[in-house]
Amino acid sequence: MQLDYSEKPALGVEGMIADSTDSTVETRFVQDSDGITPGLLVVRGSAADDAAIKPPTPTAADDEAIITATALSAAPSLFTGAGLNGVVGGSELTPARQLQLTLTSDPGFMPGPATVVGLSERGERDTESIGIPPGGPAVVGPTKFFSRLLSFSMPAATPGAGGSWRLGVGAAWAFKVGDIQGVAMFDATKAPGPYKEMAPFPVVRRGHVWVVVENAVQFGDKAFVRATVNVTGQRRGAFRSDDDSGRASAIPARFVTSAGVGGLAKLELDLYAA
């Protein structure tokens, strides 16, 4: 007979559907030799369209691949064509990349948006604004993926302290948004532990699902997923609310509950709308 009862029952289990919100679950097959743990993000593998792996480790970022170091200007500046003078410049980015704007420390940086115009990973024209923090130094960037940059506009500043900025690309992720398969779902009918290589398993592609977070998250925070492990215990495919210095990538999902480090947060995703 059970005599002890928890006053605060567990919210759920990592990878479990979190509530009655409409969910879409599909079947995939494990391609990773070490298996896939419920609650981790998985992406398309190389074996077949329905094969799934944890996010591959990306290659390094290049902070001036689009525009090399440029001094502050008292007037708004627009860069196109030859003005995109980095080693990549306006060439095609394969795979599509997130951009990063690096600002040196200078009180001349004024609050205001910079604007990126480019082609999305689907080849469609797209635009995104980048907030400029006053004074720098900072590394900021859009969350969208671009396959080519068409133009970049920088707001006016107050030159005087030798400040500069440069525009580059973030880490080269080996997957695109369209490659995301979903979150490996917890299946109570299966033995505990990772799903084994070649085994079928369920993935949540739309709905609310419980995930363990690496850092504290708040309601509404954009979700990022880890691809580079630099500390023992970290897991590729785990979730957090920032890019961890380029080791995690933004995905089209957000947290709809708050949670502390190592806690369970409710993740909202809809890969059909991404």
List the helices and strands and how they pair.
Blueprint: E1 24-30, E2 41-44, E3 51-53, E4 62-71, E5 77-80, E6 99-103, E7 112-120, E8 125-132, E9 138-140, E10 146-154, E11 164-169, E12 180-184, E13 200-212, E14 222-226, E15 239-240, E16 248-255, E17 264-270
Parallel strand pairs: 1-3
Antiparallel strand pairs: 1-13, 2-3, 2-12, 4-11, 5-10, 6-9, 6-11, 7-8, 7-10, 12-13, 13-17, 14-15, 14-16, 16-17
Model description:
With 274 residues, this protein is mainly β. The protein has two domains: 24-57 and 178-270, Virus Head Decoration Protein, Chain: A (Beta Barrel); 62-169, Sandwich (Jelly Rolls). 0% of the residues lie in helices and 39% in strands. It has no helices and 17 strands. Strands 1-3-2-12-13 form a five-stranded mixed β-barrel. β7 and β8 form a beta hairpin.
Structure summary:
This protein has 274 residues and is mainly β. The protein has no helices and 17 strands.
Q: How large is the count of helical segments?
A: 0
Task: Describe the global form.
Answer: elongated
Helical percent range? under 10%
Largest sheet: 5 strands, mixed, barrel
**Which fold name corresponds to the CATH topology of the largest domain?**
Virus Head Decoration Protein, Chain: A
Overall pLDDT metric: 90
Largest beta sheet: strand ordering? 1-3-2-12-13
Name the CATH architecture of the largest domain. Answer: Beta Barrel
